[in-house]
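Study the following:
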Amino acid sequence: MKKTRLKKFLIYTFSVIFFLVIVLALHIYMVYRPKAPGEHTRILARIDIKQPITTEDSTDITSWLYQQKGVDHVLVNPHSSIVVFTFFPVRANANEIADHFKTRFHFKADRFMPTAENLKGSCPVASSSFTYKVYKFISKII
């Protein structure tokens, strides 16, 4: 009687642990899998204004950017004269938005493009991190 209870307990315990490991592996794979730029992908863009702007200018810039097709969220800092916005790459192009911005507001402004050195140090998941190693291990299995 005690052996059958112990056997059932061990079977249930290992079944639950196995199920949880499978769920964890699937979750890690779904989070880190490569995704094609699609409808739900957002990209961050930045425009540096080379002259001081006022709070009124920042309000005008914010409302204008929100009216642009594909723009999702806008932040304008009048103290640093930096405009940051997110957009859907399927619906909009950041270079076109920056060009329209310059013609609309007549500011001396350029779209900020990171250098190769900036991009090299910008990845939040280093190839030596534990999370990246787990992702690579699971992606090889699946």
Observations:
- The CA atoms of residues 87 and 93 lie 8 Å apart.
- The first helix runs from residue 2 to 32.
